[in-house]
Amino acid sequence: VNTSNKELLSEVERLQRMQRGKSLNESFDSEAFNETDALQQRLLILEEERSVLDMSVRQLMSEKDEVGKEVNLLTQKVITLTEELADSKSE
Question: ∠ CA 26-29-31 to the nearest 5 degrees?
Answer without folding.
Answer: 110
